[in-house]
Amino acid sequence: TDSGGYQVYSLSANRKIKEEGVKFKSHIDGSYHVFTPENVMEIQRQIGADIIMAFDECTPYPCDFQYAKRSMHMTHRWLDRCIKRFAELPPLYGYEQTLFPIVQGSTFPELRKQSAEYIAEAGAEGNAIGGLSVGEPAEEMYAMSELVCDILPSDKPRYLMGVGTPINILENIALGVDMFDCVMPTRNARNGMLFTAHGTINIKNKKWENDFSPIDEMNLTFVDTDYSKAYLRHLFSSNEFLGKQIATIHNLGFYMWLVREARKHILADDFRVWKDKMVVQMNKRL
Fold first, then answer.
1. Which of 23-37, 99-113, 252-266 has the lowest mean pLDDT?
2. Active site (catalytic) residues
3. CATH code for the part of the protein at 36-181
4. Domain boundaries, the chain
């Protein structure tokens, strides 16, 4: 489970950050809520998460160097408090839980290096990279991922938070990232965008109106050959919720297939050749 650190970024109009933690104003009823490193650890222990994320501040892009530096140091101090409180709380449900710290530092190499070294020294069972995919160009994201992955231990999972497109995922795997999370496959599905190995489909386009071929002939999920592109477009045109569900199932299936294939090609020692070919194909608009 995430710690609420991203909401520090996304709800910036309704929050105040202090050393103690972050005070949020609810957009629903106006009530106030305070997140601290300590109560965030308590909540995630109670939820029963397998992987618990440290409380951090996700800085915006672009970001002033001095602000990014102050924020990074505060994130490190919050991590120390998270580690202390996490150690004080026993697991509640008969299985172990682990705490992942988060590297910050915006897009400044000096700060990213400093943060990665601090996080690596914490000796956690896995480490996360935060504060990317917040508006910066993809090349800056890749540069920061490469820098951080060169510092974080290679024998522990490296988790890139909030990323990304299928191409982003393959490029970051090539740089040493192991784990990802993102709303993109589901959010884009709800808006009619389908990811495939041959490119991206905007199912709302008129060109699919009379295309009765399967959604995806690769048949990665049951919806891919059970329904046609024309039928799926009809569902979106009619604002039928089923269309969003079908598109979501397809995109999730595609993402799972993509990372399984990446693993196969890593083991076969031909990942980079396969990755370069896939990036060209997936960059097409169908």
1. 23-37
2. 2, 181
3. 3.20.20.105
4. 36-181, 186-282
